[in-house]
Fold 3-deoxy-7-phosphoheptulonate synthase.
Amino acid sequence: LAGRSFHPEPTRIQVGDITIGGNEPVVIAGPCSVESREQILETAKAVKKAGAHILRGGAFKPRSSPYSFQGLKEEGLKLLAEAREVTGLPVISEVMDPENLDLVAEYVDILQLGARNMQNFHLLKKVGQTNKPVMLKRGLSATMEEWLMSAEYILSEGNPNVILCERGIRTFETYTRNTLDLSAVPVIKHLSHLPIIVDPSHGTGKWRYVTPMARAGLAAGADGLMVEVHPNPEAAWSDGPQSLTLDNFASMMEDLKSMQALF
Ligand code: PEP
Ligand code: MN
């Protein structure tokens, strides 16, 4: 169902008045984690002003250590919904397990399935039984074939609204957190009708490389970007080193507009 032969026309996913997979690239921006009302509202207003289309923010966080901050959970979802109210931006947040699916789906416009859950087949089937748009991130070491098969789990349950997200894969390189595999963009475009978003934040792990790789992602033909932004990255509760400041995000957007990668 994910293949071009089944569905030759590109899939367009409508979220409010935003089209993902249409003619114009879409920018999803916001903090890794929702931390407080002030933090999410300040970020939401700033990214909106700079031209972002969708607000992101984690409320359930898949952390490598069980002792790290795990997210504000429902409180975080409420704050995201409040930020949507204030800015009009649709919101996306990660769902980590089937138990919380109904709860997350109640608040968000797009469900995010994280890299660590790309092959959680039970969760894939459950989100496939909803009609919410789903952004499926590529697994930490997943091949493109495995990734598309995971999309197939969602599609085959009846939910056609799948967006793929390239977020870097694990390689021998350690200077960057992951290796952003931009070849995934043309390969997925060739094999599939599904939209693909590039995440240069998790893809590099260092804010300095985010703008160049965002540029490269759009040049490769991605349908949009997902970028982490924080008012004070040094104090961020997660993924500070890869987060753009509000000013750096605005500069990135100017940069992309000047290269006519964004409108
Ligand atoms: C995230 O988007 O903050 C995240 C946890 O991403 P990934 O699943 O790609 O690591
Ligand atoms: Mn993150």
The radius of gyration is 17 Å. Residues 13-256 form a domain with the TIM Barrel fold (CATH 3.20.20.70). The CA atoms of residues 91 and 108 lie 5 Å apart. The beta strands are 13-15, 18-20, 26-30, 54-56, 91-94, 110-113, 134-137, 162-166, 196-198, 224-228.
